[in-house]
Amino acid sequence: MDRGLILQLAMYFVIVNLIGLYVGYNLIQQFDGTTPPIINDNPDDPINSLGLLAYMLVGTAFILLAIKFLPDKILYWVLKGMETLALIVTSLIVLQVFVILELALVLAVGLVCIRIFAPQYLIWRNISSIMATIGVGSLLGASIGVWPVIVFLIALAVYDYIAVFKTKHMVKMAKAVAKKNLSFTFALPTAKHQFELGTGDLVMPLVFGVSILNDTLTRGVPWPNATIPSIIVLLASFIGLAFTLDYGSKNVGKALPALPLQVGLMIVVYGLLRASGLFG
Questions:
Q1: Number of domains into which the chain is organized
Q2: Could you tell me the residue range of the domain that residue 190 belongs to?
Q3: Three-state SS sequence of the chain
């Protein structure tokens, strides 16, 4: 096992999920039972799972078409524009929890400027990826119920398997994005190789974790005790992700989907927690 690689993964995983749960908790309090609709106003309606999947497929199709048909320089600025918009929105979601909105906006714009004018620094790319992951994961998790999230995770795990092993379009897209040094992946450099971890592999566990947190809070478990089921499920996700990344470090160049193992472990652990009845 490459300890340096796993330690980097652990660091980013802990940062994303601890801050993400706190941001998610604050969003849940702000929404106060009135969540932003995905497809409809009922966060427990499974149709929201299909909506999320549809949004993701449309976004993936757009990026694949751009990679195929756009000249390299134009492609870079299209993807850079997507990164900039996503970074502004997600940074505001995260930062407004800790500072006033005006300062959050200044910090978000500052981060975008660093990414535009000094894109070579990996640490700032990873910080941007942290912001994007926390922003998306906490917002979605606070907006959708546990069971629709589970349905979405299962569908996404199946899609991830097909996209990596069958159609292989996810591998093509990941390589194209990684070459552009954009905040859609985490850079995990080692002495032998720089590994790229997709933000989705951290976003989806956080979505599940925040959704579980919301459900636990509604069952009457107070903060911060309500985070315990989420943390246990997230630990299962980390184990699955660490195993996948370790396999990748021993088989450089061979793509492996991370979500199937993560999703399987998270759902099993969540089922055991619910069966135990310890948290309502």
A1: 1
A2: 3-273
A3: CCHHHHHHHHHHHHHHHHHHHHHHHHHHHHHCCCCCCCCCCCCCCCHHHHHHHHHHHHHHHHHHHHHHHCCHHHHHHHHHHHHHHHHHHHHHHHHCCCCCHHHHHHHHHHHHHHHHHCCCCHHHHHHHHHHHHHHHHHHHHHHCCHHHHHHHHHHHHHHHHHHHHHCCHHHHHHHHHHHCCCCCEEEEECCCCEEEEECHHHHHHHHHHHHHHHHHHHCCCCCCCCHHHHHHHHHHHHHHHHHHHHHHHHCCCCCCCCHHHHHHHHHHHHHHHHHHCCCC
